[in-house]
Amino acid sequence: MLTAAVLALTAGCSGSDRAAHPYGAAAARVGESLAVLGWNMAVSNLRWNGDYVMVDVDAAPTDPAAPHAKPGDVRFGLYGALAHPIEATGIGSCGAVQGMDTQPLSVPSPDRLTGTVCLGPLKDQSAVRGVYMYSPRDRIPGTAAAYPAAFPVGVLPTNANDTGLVVQTTSVDAWRADGTQLNQAALGDPNVFSGNGYMLLGLQADAVKAAYRDDSARRGGPLMLLVAPTLPGVGLNPACSAYGASVLILPEASLDAVHVSASLCTQGEINAALLYATVSVVGTHAAVWTTRG
After folding, report:
1. What is the pLDDT of residues 125-157, one digit of tens each?
2. What is the value of pTM for the model shown?
3. Residue 161, CB half-sphere, CA atoms under 13 Å: how many?
4. Nearest CA to 30 among 4, 50, 53?
5. Domain range list for the chain
């Protein structure tokens, strides 16, 4: 792994070789370093372990005295021509991978983030072009729009003039914390809406490629979708841990259109999670490491 000094040197020397920034994200080749979210971060050794992509991450704060993203907030995703986004919070991402012979991502000291990130499962290895990174807590000022997403309707198609994206739900499924699935008839039973619950939203985000590319460049980064409320860690159900509460809208730059289908989970007190849930569209800073220029 690289030391902080080498990370900084690599970041300074590799700029001329980097690919064009896809949708406003900082970009480098796998094996290089980038300064992003207050970290000098290197991503290297992209490889497969069964149906999982694994990469090694080594990072140190760009300036230890300056703010930087909390290690537990940093998410990674697969960049490429995937049918659905595949993301995971870096710390804890390798819990489901069998036969790990490397150290999962961890924080051995306050000024170091190092180890392996695991992303999957995915069988189509040819779809993967690299790995991206962002933090759901990093928001570019003046870029947010929020929409109600109440069960059982979800989000009606949004106005493209709001953010440049048209976002809508393709499916809405809800459960009580005990695993009882709810249907529309449950809305008439006040006893159902007590305790905790969770809702899985199928979301589709579309944009005109040229407009989204130009807007992202002006904004300084792509957009992300966030759902609320949510809970930290594993949460109420493994599905919520697997799908998460955020997704970066960063399709592979060579694709003809911006068309992303994802599933996100709201969870918590059942009225808040099902009847008063929200979907937000927010600009954020991101980085992507690709296997080729």
Report:
1. 999 999 999 999 999 999 999 999 999 999 999
2. 0.90
3. 0
4. 53
5. 4-136, 145-284
